[in-house]
Design brief:
The complex is a heterodimer. Chain A has a single domain (about 1-220), classed as 3-Layer(aba) Sandwich (Rossmann fold), CATH 3.40.50. In chain A, about 35% of the residues lie in helices and about 20% in strands. Chain A contains seven helices and nine strands. In chain A, strands 6-7-8-3-9 form a five-stranded parallel beta sheet, with helices on both faces. A four-stranded antiparallel beta sheet of chain A has the order 2-1-4-5, covered by helices on one side. Chain A is globular and about 50 Å long. Chain A starts with a strand and ends in a 6-residue tail after the last strand. Chain B is an alpha+beta fold. Chain B has eleven helices and 17 strands. In chain B, β11 (about 220-225) and β12 (about 230) form a beta hairpin. The longest helix of chain B has about 45 residues, at about 290-335. Chain B starts with a helix and ends with a helix. Classes of the chains: A alpha/beta, B alpha+beta. At the A-B interface, α2 and α4 of A face α1, α10 and α11 of B.
Chain lengths: ~220, ~400
């Protein structure tokens, strides 16, 4: 699914570099990325999603070498195959929960919807029911709790059935009781969707739920 | 595209206060020049149409603008009067049809009283809504607006302003009988009272009748009464009413030819006659002849010069609004950088992000255009009417 070979990424001014000789992540694998602050966890997610390009080496996702794709191709690749969950949720305050979940569809200007509006509505409802926010679809994000916001963000990441789900510290802004729930939910939904899940986390208590743990501290130079 | 419009629309609605401010700023920037232009164009058309329908005007030397505006709209007073003989001079020259105008008086509710001949109604193609034209002194015909505002009609009476306020000769107000109401034609004729020239001269005190005091039987009204003379107090004759019975007693002291008028409207037989008439009048020391159309054209040129200042102000308002929009956009881009970065990370193209901003402004601009159009439809007519009321 994901193959990284001889990757080198320089931060330039910071004088920090990331070296990965070889890293393989299998399809539907649930992986936790850990490491100290500033060790390059988020950078690794950006490289896997094609937001950043390596200085050398290659990142291959689903048989696509991202560094050989141009900006537009990488954008379309992200839009169609990757679901993103952020630490700060990044929900749009002016959209309802339903519209936030549908955002990946709305922003794909050149892509034709893969399903009809009715199918999309069904999909939104199904996801919302799975994460217990079906009764809040018409609310604005500011009227939701932190846990509910992250549930919305998970639905938004899953709406277009991505093969790869990337989550950057998705529990970083949640209280202890919500952390476990949200992470379990994320893993459960990734399993249901048969998606590969890569989660950046600081929380050592949560990593037991993953198939594999990758410590990026060893990649930093 | 639909999704972009939808997202932009949601943003505009969510931030409704900001959107309303933007829309109001843009609406004013669009509406003010639009309305100004429309009102000015309408004013120009109105002024020019009435001026074009009045070929030449003779009056006392002085301001050409005052003479033209006085003849067209009755409210501006020319400095001097001219003798009525000028009217006869024009007729006898056979160059033009002449219509005398004498308008120095107002009714008690400040409506201009225009002394003229019956030819004026034919010249202006004025029609009667009800009643008939005046047939003797003391009668008048009123414009449609006068009828509406004073709620008077045929058979009612109007009082002139008492000349005793300004004239030590102590002429009392004249009670004029309304014989007709003109059909509205949207000009200053709707807002005037028309009467015979002789009636206006009676208002001036140049002609008068003798009221029969002997018929008064209230002893309180008499200060002194003998067989030969009666002295009465002011309560006896509050106004002068000219009736069929006392009509015969009215007479004028002096030659009518010397009595004052304020202008003579001339309708020349042809261009050559107009030129010859102008030549004749221009040789006279105390008279001037003007073509209202060219006077109004010059007046409009001056108004348009003022309008250019208005245009500069409009451009300044537009520039300030544009700068405000630019500032708003820059702040918005800064404030929404995380939102846009999120969209970018999710696979949103830069053009799509640009399109999102663009659609937000297009929606605001369209709303402003619609509002400006609506305001124009609602207000321009009223503004035009108000400006024309002032001019008329």
């Amino acid at each position: 699914m994901i193959s990284i070979q001889d990757l080198r990424f320089d931060y330039g001014e910071k004088g920090f570099s990331l070296f990965i000789e070889s890293l393989q992540i299998e399809r539907a694998e649930k992986v936790a990325i850990v490491g100290a602050s500033g060790s390059g966890k988020t950078t690794l997610l950006d490289l896997i999603s094609g937001i950043r390009l390596p200085n050398s080496g290659s990142v291959e996702v689903d048989d696509k070498r991202l560094n050989l794709l141009n900006e537009n191709e990488r954008r379309r690749f992200r839009a169609s195959r990757i679901g993103l969950v952020f630490q700060e949720f990044e929900l749009l305050e002016y959209l309802s929960v339903r519209d936030n979940i549908l955002l990946p569809y709305r922003i794909q200007r050149f892509s034709k919807p893969t399903c009809s509006p009715d199918q999309l509505s069904e999909r939104v409802l199904e996801l919302a029911e799975r994460v217990s926010i079906a009764d809040k679809l018409h609310r604005k994000p500011q009227r939701l709790s932190q846990g509910e916001k992250q549930r919305v963000a998970i639905c938004r990441a899953l709406i277009h059935q991505p093969r790869l789900l990337l989550a950057d510290e998705p529990t970083g802004n949640l209280d202890a009781s919500n952390k476990n729930k949200i992470l379990s939910l994320l893993i459960e939904q990734a399993k249901t969707e048969d998606s590969t899940l890569i989660v950046v986390t600081h929380d050592q208590n949560l990593i037991g739920q993953f198939d594999r743990i990758i410590d990026v501290s060893g990649f930093a130079r | 595209m639909d999704s972009l419009i939808y997202l932009a629309g949601r943003y505009v609605i969510h931030h409704w206060f900001k959107s309303v401010i933007l829309i109001l700023c843009l609406t004013l920037s669009i509406f003010l020049p639009l309305a100004g232009r429309a009102v000015l164009k309408n004013l120009e058309d109105e002024l020019q149409a009435r001026a074009n329908a009045t070929p030449l005007v003779i009056g006392a030397k002085g301001s050409r603008f005052d003479l033209a505006l006085h003849t067209l709209y009755f409210d501006v007073q020319p400095g001097e009067t001219i003798p009525y003989s000028v009217n006869r001079f024009v007729i006898e020259s056979e160059f033009a049809w002449a219509i005398p105008i004498y308008s120095r008086h107002v009714s008690q509710n400040r409506i201009p009283i225009v002394g003229t001949s019956l030819g004026y109604f034919e010249f202006r193609q004025l029609r009667l809504e009800e009643g008939s034209l005046f047939s003797r002194i003391g009668q008048c015909v009123i414009g449609s607006d006068v009828a509406k505002s004073s709620q008077k009609g045929v058979g009612d009476f109007l009082l002139t302003t008492p000349e005793t306020d300004v004239n030590i000769a102590g002429i009392n107000p004249i009670k004029m009988q309304i014989t007709g109401v003109l059909t509205a034609n949207g000009t200053s004729d709707d807002q005037a009272i028309f009467t015979d020239l002789k009636t206006t001269w009676i208002i001036d005190g140049l002609g008068h009748g003798h009221q029969d005091i002997e018929e008064e039987d209230n002893p309180n009204l008499f200060l002194d009464k003998t067989d030969k003379m009666a002295t009465v107090n002011k309560g006896v004759v509050p106004y002068i009413e000219i009736t069929d019975d006392n009509l015969g007693s009215f007479h004028f002291h002096g030659k009518l030819e010397d009595f004052p008028i304020t202008a003579v409207i001339c309708d020349p037989n042809n261009e050559k006659a107009a030129t010859r008439l102008e030549g004749r009048i221009n040789t006279l020391e105390k008279l001037q002849i003007v073509a209202p159309s060219s006077v109004i054209r010059n007046l409009m040129k001056k108004i348009l010069q003022v309008k250019s200042l208005f245009d500069i102000a409009t451009i300044a308002i537009f520039a300030v609004t544009t700068l405000f929009l630019v500032l708003n956009t820059l702040l918005s881009i800064r404030l929404r950088s995380r939102e846009m970065m999120t969209m970018y990370k999710m696979g949103c193209g830069r053009f799509t992000i640009f399109g999102l901003y663009a659609w937000e402004y297009i929606i605001v601009l369209l709303a402003s255009l619609l509002l400006a159009l609506l305001l124009s439809m609602l207000l321009v007519g009223t503004l035009q009417q108000a400006v024309l009321e002032v001019v008329r």
